[in-house]
Structures are given as C-alpha cells and as structure tokens.
Write a structure and sequence with these properties.
Radius of gyration of chain A: 20 Å
Helix content of chain A: 25-40%
CATH class of the largest domain in chain A: Alpha Beta
Oligomer: homodimer
Largest sheet of chain A: 7 strands, mixed
Structural class of chain A: alpha+beta
Largest interface: A-B, 33 and 33 residues
Order of helices and strands of chain A: HEEEEHEEEHEHHEEH
CATH architecture of the largest domain in chain A: Alpha-Beta Complex
Number of strands of chain A: 10
Strand content of chain A: 25-35%
Number of helices of chain A: 6
DNA sequence: AATCGATAGTGTATTATTGACACAAGAGTA
DNA sequence: TACTCTTGTGTCAATAATACACTATCGATT
C-alpha cells in the first residue's frame, strides 16, 4: 500500500501526464489446458481483485494506451485488442481504491475523481504472457473464468460484457489465431470454442465448418507422443485469416 | 458565430459543467421516402457540416448525456440509442471549431482541448423528429445518406463506423421498430432493409423470413388509396420484439 | 364496363447448410 | 495380438436459403 507521500506523488504525476476522468480496463483472455483464463490483479493489503487497467497519456491514441497497459502487464506487444464498450456511470468509480480515499484532499487525490473507463478485451497466447503486477497490486495472475474471485468496482460487469462480446464475435469473426499456439490440433481448437461458448460441439461438424472457412493449413506431420491416434497439426493461414477478419464470416442478408 | 465574449462565457461554463476531454457524437438515422437519412448540423459562417454532439455533465451517466443531446436536437425522448465506438486519436479534434481557435488563450478555450468522443447511433422515426440547430449551427437538417456533404473533423469516419455497425447488427437484431412508423406495409419494411444494406432483396423470401421471426402483427385492414393492390398493414409485436432484442436472432454456433 | 399497368400476395422446386450419427484407423498398453 | 482411447472421415435427414411464376386487386384509361 502506498504511503501518503507516494500517493501524492502518484496523483501529481498522473494529473500532469494523463487525461483526467478517463481510464482503460482490459479483459485479457488466455486459454490453457482446456480452460479460459482471465488476467486479474490482486490489491496489496486488500481483498479486492481488479482488471488490469491504466490511463491515457495526454497526447496518446487510446489504442496505444491499451497496448502500453497490456505490455506492462503481460510483456506482450502487438496483441489482439478490441475496444468493446465505455462504462460511464458516475457511481462506478465511487469505491475506487477505497483505502486511498481519505488520505488526501479530493482535489489532489487522483483516485477520487470520476472515471469513464474504456473497455478493451484482448486475446493472448497463455504461454507467451508473463504476468507482472503493477505498483498497486501484489499479484497479477491468470484466474479460471469459471472460478472467479469477487471483483471490485464494476469490473464484474466489464468482464461479463467482454465475454458476451467475444461470444458474439465468434459468430462472424475467426477468433482462434490469437488464443492458440502456432500449431495445434483440431480437437484443441474445438476445445477453445467449446470453452468460450460453454457448450459441447460436434467433432465432425466442427471440423467441416472450420475447414470450410479456408483459414487453416494442415501440416504434413501429425503430433506424436500421445497414447492415441496422432492428430494432425494445423496452423492458421494468415493471408486468408486476415481477409476473413475484415470481411466477416457470415453474410446474414 | 460567437463573439469572443460569448466564447469565453461558453468555455467557462463548459469547464464548470462538463467532464473535460470527453464528448459525445450522435449518428441519427431516419428513414423517409425510401431513403436513409442522417441528421447533420451546418455551422454558422463556415462550410463545415458536423454530427450532432455534446458533452457529459460532471455527474451524468453517459447514456443520459446522449439522450439529452438527442432530445435537444430532435425533440425526441426515449430514442433507440446504441453506443458503438470511442474515437480517441489525439489529432482528431485538431480542427475543432477552427474559427474559435485563436480567439482565446488555449487554457481558456474549451475547443482547443483534446477530446475523446463516444459515438452513439440512434434510430428514429423521421416524421416524429423536429430538428433543432444548436447555438453554433445555422441549420440542423436531414441529409440523404448517399448525398452527404463534406464532414468536418473525423465525422465522416464516425458516420461510416456507425453505418457498418448498423449493417452488422441487422444480422442479429431486429432493427425496424425504431425506424418505421407504427404501421407499415411489408414492401415498406423491405425498402428499409434494402436501403440500409444497399442491395435488393427478394420480395417473397424477405416476407417469409420476416414473418418467421414472429415479431410482426398483421392488421385486419389493408392500406387503401394507392393506385394498386392494397397491401396489408403490419406493426411490431412489442413483446416478441423485446424478447428477440435480448436473445438475438441467429444462433451462429 | 372492359382493359391495362402496376404492385401485392402466395407457393414450389432446387440447392446449400446444418445437425445427427457410425464406423474405420492409428498409437500406445497389457 | 487384442484392447482402449482418440482421431479422421462419410452419409443421410432436416432445415434454411435461393430462385422463380402465377394470381389478385386497385386505380387509371379507353
């Protein structure tokens, strides 16, 4: 926990560097061992968990802010980042960093301001990320999506909204690339979809549909070592993948 | 155009009332005589056209801000409003109200600040709206979507993004209710869809699909007066419509 | 009153997509 | 060699999307 002096310093510096009243919160999804994970921060000397977040430098495009924040938390650059919603209830930041609430006069304390937060969700390869806590938190760790701790502020709402958006986007955008390692098997990819959608899919129909999109390349060599029939390895055909991203999957009308 | 004194007053008042660096821009769609329309403002003493916009009161939820702004511009309340994107390039507001640029010192002039703008799009019944200019504009009028004037700032981008979002949402949300009058014929509704999507649809298939959604009620009496066979009148079945809104149209996976 | 032109209402055959389902093949293990 | 587990693949039925043609009715025209 920061001392009064440190808080004052942080606040002064924040006011000098960042746009006031605006924050960014990131819902970072990862996929590991058949589980969808979210990156969460655990506050020092407090029970609360938070989404990784930060602020926008006075002259910085917000996409770069989100990128910068994520790089600080994961070490990753060029992450798949998708802005999905702004949360603007005046009450939402009421309980922001409660322990710092009365440590400074309101006008000086950055954390007593009202904040609109821009929600981004990110899809990252679990294995590549190296979670790093920020100065307010003791821990930055992956948590299973179906075993979440209680989240502070409106971060539970932000997370739910991100997940809903992700599920919706799955219908008209190819998602897998950012969550899967370079090479993977069809059952592994299917597991990702089943995990995101939280339902079982038919193995054969899934394969047919996925291949139908034309964004997968089958490698010559199957994955060896398992105790069963060796599955083929696939990777994304980046060219077609990008095209599919911009065009969208399903026509609709 | 405002005098220096008026600008100073506006700026002082804005700084006292609104969250700094945050604005809201609205893309208001209407539908009339087979054309999709957008509400635009024409600046006093300037060639520029702008989207209707405004700012967020210091203690106001942003949804209410958007509502308030739209009510001021259209007289309408309880509008279908959808937040769709935040535009956060530091350069985007560089040319904001150029004519007021050098009239006041930067620190005093509200319009030289950097603004992130939250984009909302609205669907309104063309006939109900009563366009009202704001104090900066000489005109507030409906413009045909396919005959747009040049837009200032990044408002062309905002409009395009809104339109793309609208087209996408058409695939998994029932849209018509907010753009159509209470009663309408199937060909009229089809025209709306064709206009939004900018392509011809098959009459019979459109009807089948629409009715299949189960959100339309057919009135007993057809519309009389036309020089041709009298078409049936339909209205939306609000209960089913609301259900469809929350559930979404198409399963996807 | 009969005809014409334009638009609205409806049905059906064809094709593509989705969903359900069963069997064969390969890799390790006993 | 047989067994178990998992993967790969094909087929059939149901459903949805598409293409397309005829009939009905209104006002206008003659």
């Amino acid at each position: 926990m920061l001392t009064e002096k440190e808080l004052k310093e942080y606040s002064d510096n924040a006011r000098a560097s960042y746009l006031p009243h605006i924050s960014i919160d990131c819902v970072v999804f990862g996929f590991h061992e058949g589980m969808l994970k979210v990156l969460l921060l655990h506050m020092k000397n407090e029970n609360g968990w938070y989404l990784p977040g930060g602020f926008v430098l006075k002259d910085e495009p917000i996409e770069l802010s989100a990128n910068r924040i994520l790089k600080e938390r994961t070490g990753l650059d060029e992450i798949f980042l998708q802005q999905f919603h702004v949360f603007g209830d005046p009450q939402r930041s009421k309980d922001h960093f409660e322990m710092y609430k009365d440590m400074l006069p309101r006008a000086e304390n950055w954390f007593t301001d009202r904040f609109l937060t821009i929600g981004y969700y990110a899809l990252v390869d679990f294995c590549d990320a190296i979670p790093q806590p920020d100065i307010f938190s003791a821990d930055c760790i992956w948590r299973d999506l179906d075993d979440l701790p209680e989240l502070k502020l409106d971060h539970a709402l932000i997370l739910k909204t991100a997940l809903d958006t992700l599920r919706l986007q799955l219908n008209y955008q190819p998602i897998g690339y950012n969550l899967m390692p370079k090479e993977f098997t069809m059952p592994e990819l299917q597991k990702l979809y089943e995990t995101i959608l939280d339902k079982k899919l038919d193995r054969r129909n899934f394969q047919r549909r996925m291949l139908g999109f034309g964004i997968l390349k089958r490698s010559e060599k199957p994955r060896k070592g398992g105790a069963h029939k060796a599955p083929y390895l696939y990777s994304f055909d980046l060219e077609n993948y990008q095209a599919a991203l911009t065009e969208g999957f399903k026509g609709g009308w």
